[in-house]
Design goal:
The protein is α/β, with parallel strands linked by helices and 457 residues long. The chain contains 17 helices and 17 strands. α2 (38-50) packs parallel to α3.
């Protein structure tokens, strides 16, 4: 019985790049994952994995913060330490070669860009000891990154794919790359081997295209997913979105590929996906959350720390005291602060209401607007003392942790939240996005088709 561990999006950040000052505050405070603490979290996770019964460890891309050479060197030393206990296989992704061309060093109120970064064509050789050197077949892409195949056991192979560029400046594969992939799947089938895929970007939107559509997925995602499924690939492990979720896709030919989206190891809830390859070649997985790590030499509750770090992101935005600070905090979130901040006279009071109001106050507002008819009055009374921000925080956490706390559609909590979420669709009846939002929140609250924490696929 083969046992495998999958993690993703370690985004290792070297403390040498700066860990204090206003600019670092804006950067670190606008991210679900941790920066300065990433090394401590990774060390504890690697120690835990090293002591497990896993036969091999796979990391699905975005190994470093933004491709900084210093981050790569320090992270690779951690990989070598883990490799003394386990086989380790990695794929790189766009954050590993700074595809945005914006590496940063923080020094108080100053941000500089004098940071050496790894080039895409340098990554294959740099990480050759974590996949390429042990491969039975490999492919070098047009940007110099690599895909490869590993014989994990007599009847199981890993297909590790780099999907950074498809020749059209989007995630995916060139035709030549695709031909190599299909050949590897054909050879595996001829040899009676199960193939488990690993790449970085998603093949399909998880939860909703509103959340994980667009550039979160490979370009022409249905075509790519169909082609892989029709070539015989049944399982794919991915990262990128930082959410924990399982979904599947059926091609027009009736072939199904199931995809496990792995959350970020250095962000809430630090998921470690433990997989067992069963005798019938199905996969059983169970998601473990890192329970503790050493921070400045002290044992820290990982779940409390990461949850507070994540929720502080929301609080910082809602706490914006004025138009200028709103602009800066929106920019840090990679939103258009210059464009949005002129709406501060409307946005800031709304933020204050979200932050302080409870359900009874929100219900009164809806009555004044003539919208209370869409909300069950008895449920509004039941939850009258619950803060609106608590609902926001709970739903946001569920988005990333794969609905650790799930609700049935008969649950009062579910019914109340969905009645609120449906209000925009009642007002804007022809707006498709408001209807998509309903399906998205439903998937978050119920957990969707699969159990994102423990299932057999």
């Amino acid at each position: 019985m083969l046992k495998l561990t999958f993690i993703a999006d370690t985004h290792y950040y070297s403390k040498s790049l700066g860990t204090c000052g206003r600019q670092y505050f804006l950067r670190s405070g606008s991210d679900q994952k941790c920066l300065a603490e990433s090394g401590d979290i990774i060390d504890s996770a690697f120690e835990l994995i090293g002591e497990s019964d896993a036969d091999a460890v796979m990391i699905a891309g975005d190994l470093t913060n933004d491709g900084e050479v210093v981050c790569h060197k320090e992270f690779r030393s951690k990989l070598y330490k883990l490799k003394k206990k386990k086989k380790v296989f990695v794929v790189t992704a766009t954050h590993d070669w700074c595809c945005d061309g914006n590496p940063r060093r923080f020094n108080g109120s100053i941000v500089t860009h004098d940071v050496d970064t790894m080039k895409s064509h340098e990554l294959a050789d740099f990480y050759k000891d974590f996949g390429l050197s042990d491969s039975i077949s490999s492919y070098i892409t047009h940007i110099g990154t690599c895909s490869y195949v590993i014989q994990l056991s007599e009847k199981v192979r890993l297909l590790a794919l780099n999907d950074d560029k498809n020749g059209n400046d989007h995630a995916g594969f060139t035709e030549e790359h695709f031909s190599w992939i299909e050949e590897q799947l054909r050879l595996a089938q001829a040899d009676g081997c199960l193939v488990i895929g690993m790449m970085h970007h998603l093949l399909m939107p998880h939860i909703s295209p509103l959340i994980t559509g667009g550039s979160t997925c490979v370009e022409n995602r249905e075509y790519v997913a169909s082609r892989l499924a029709d070539a015989g690939l049944r399982y794919m492990f991915v990262g990128h979105s930082h959410i924990q979720s399982t979904a599947d896709f059926k091609s027009k030919n009736g072939n199904v590929i199931t995809e496990i989206n792995i959350g970020s190891l250095t962000g809430y809830p630090a998921p470690i996906v433990n997989v067992t390859v069963n005798d019938d070649m199905t996969l059983s997985y169970e998601v473990e959350h890192l329970r503790k790590f050493k921070l400045d030499g002290k044992i820290t509750d990982a779940q409390i720390f990461l949850k507070n770090h994540f929720l502080a992101l929301i609080k910082r935005l809602l706490d914006s005291p004025n138009k200028d600070e709103l602009r800066d905090r929106l920019d840090a979130l990679q939103l258009d602060g210059k464009k949005i901040s002129p709406l501060a006279p409307v946005i800031l009071p709304l933020f204050k209401f979200i932050k302080t109001a409870d359900v009874s106050q929100a219900y009164r507002k809806l009555r004044l607007l003539g919208l209370a008819k869409f909300v069950d009055k008895d449920l509004a009374i039941k939850f009258k003392n619950k803060k609106i921000i608590d609902f926001v925080n709970e739903i946001t956490l569920s988005l990333f942790d794969g609905s650790v706390k799930k609700y049935t559609r008969e649950d009062d909590y579910y019914r109340f939240v969905m009645s609120f979420i449906s209000i925009p669709s009642k007002i804007m009846k022809n707006n498709l996005d408001t209807k998509k939002l309903i399906f998205a929140i439903d998937a978050i609250l119920t957990g969707g088709k699969f159990d994102n924490q423990k299932d057999t696929i």
